[in-house]
């Protein structure tokens, strides 16, 4: 099931789906595993919808970038069957979306985080793990609140910061010259500013509390940097840049 | 000439230089073209040094990321011979530096900005242009102040923002989890945070006025985004993300 007829047809043409459904209860008929891949703001309605058609032994998991809000939506929608939902988050973001952006091997060597619930049976969590392992991914577990804090810092804040930087260039008198002369640093810094607006609107709202903490900390840090520049404090700039460079050089993408 | 003996030896081993000198006046002997590639903060002393050994027909150009301060240093150091200096900026940044990071073909298809001076002879500017064209680069001209404003926006600010984001993660209680779970978005956003601290300290100080304007504008923009998140203004977030995405998708690296 999806929201755009064109996208669904493309998915069928590319052999990504066998069958298209336009009714959630109908789509649930005979399903033993449901994978929810949609903007997190759309989750509450979908959990309500699938609850109506869910069969006894059906297991549900998701690809939502935030976990506390998705779990709350699942509890509200699934009620007593909450134990059938194993929350997950594959770390394989890309700025393109839709069936046209589908890639075999997307999850090979990537991390998938599961945030199992107290109500989950160990065998159901293990089944979802095997599903991801079969795609070549490596599964780790986190608590939902720790997950949301970490991803506010390393994913949600950078996305908003990239969107903001690009938006800040638009409409200024020298915007054309700015875009014309921007180089490889700009390209990489702003790659994620081409991400899906609705998906990121939902993430920003869903993870609001942690994200506000991160925005406040980042704005304060940029204020410190501003003061170093204003006071021409070369030693402080040098020390900060060297610390960051060392941490960045020691970091390796976990793959 | 360079500042580190190990780097100079590596440059000789790799065939990047024929001769190493430890005295500027000596290095200038017989030189008909001098290319200054060093942190912009080191330019004033180097212009003074080369002025002492500069021969009559010697032409000087540079690779400095800022132009108004380098031109001021050249005027102070070269005095009446300022017309022999053609200021330049190749847009081919990389986070690695030194002779070990040298790459043939680095400038192929890249932009090089020249900011010629009123004192330059047209034939000297043309000679520097031919030098870059021979490396496969495309040469454009700008005024020094327009150059510094544009690069504050599309290069200097993103570098400081990337350094600041990485530095903001260091030392927090969940820093290890943050670096462990950071993905491809973080990788690209922070690539330039592995850049050379001294080079970027000098750029930040050299382009202080324009960079302060950019930092103020960016901090204000992030404050607006913070308020949208705080007020749960999904429509405003959606509109801003869509604007930025459209601009970023329409942008193509000029190569």
Structure characterization notes:
Two copies of one chain form a homodimer. Chain A has 255 residues and is mainly α. The first copy, chain A, has helices spanning 5-13, 24-28, 43-53, 68-78, 122-134, 144-169, 175-181, 184-189, 197-206, 208-230, 234-250, and strands at residues 33-36, 59-62, 85-86, 88-90, 111-114, 138-141. Chain A is 54% helix and 8% strand. The first copy, chain A, folds into two domains: 5-142, NAD(P)-binding Rossmann-like Domain (Rossmann fold); 147-250, 6-phosphogluconate dehydrogenase C-terminal like domain (6-phosphogluconate dehydrogenase C-terminal fold). Chain A is built from eleven helices and six strands. In chain A, strand 5, helix 5 and strand 6 (138-141) form a beta-alpha-beta unit. A three-stranded parallel beta sheet of chain A has the order 1-2-3, covered by helices on one side. Chain A has a three-stranded mixed beta sheet with strand order 4-5-6, with helices on one face. At the A-B interface, helix 6, helix 7, helix 8, helix 9 and helix 10 of A face helix 6, helix 7, helix 8, helix 9 and helix 10 of B.
């Amino acid at each position: 099931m999806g929201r755009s007829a064109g996208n669904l047809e493309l998915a069928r043409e590319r052999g990504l789906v066998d069958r298209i459904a336009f009714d959630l209860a109908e789509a649930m008929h005979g399903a033993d595993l449901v994978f929810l891949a949609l903007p997190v703001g759309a989750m509450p309605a979908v959990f309500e919808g699938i609850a109506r058609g869910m069969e006894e032994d059906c297991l549900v998991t998701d690809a939502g970038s935030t976990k506390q809000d998705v779990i709350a939506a699942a509890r509200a929608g699934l009620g007593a069957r909450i134990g059938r939902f194993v929350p997950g988050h594959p770390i394989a973001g890309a700025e393109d979306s839709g069936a046209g952006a589908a890639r075999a091997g997307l999850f090979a060597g990537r991390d998938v985080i599961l945030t199992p619930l107290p109500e989950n049976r160990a065998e159901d969590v293990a089944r979802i793990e095997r599903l991801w392992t079969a795609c070549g991914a490596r599964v780790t577990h986190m608590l939902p609140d720790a997950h949301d804090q970490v991803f506010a810092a390393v994913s949600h804040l950078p996305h908003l910061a990239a969107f903001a930087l690009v938006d800040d260039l638009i409409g200024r008198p020298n915007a054309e010259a700015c875009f014309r002369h921007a180089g490889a640093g700009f390209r990489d810094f702003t790659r994620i500013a081409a991400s899906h607006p609705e998906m990121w609107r939902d993430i920003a709202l869903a993870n609001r509390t942690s994200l506000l903490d991160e925005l406040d900390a980042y704005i304060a840090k940029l204020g410190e940097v501003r003061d170093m520049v204003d006071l021409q404090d070369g030693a402080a700039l040098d020390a900060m840049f060297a610390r960051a460079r060392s941490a960045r050089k020691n970091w390796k993408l976990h793959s």
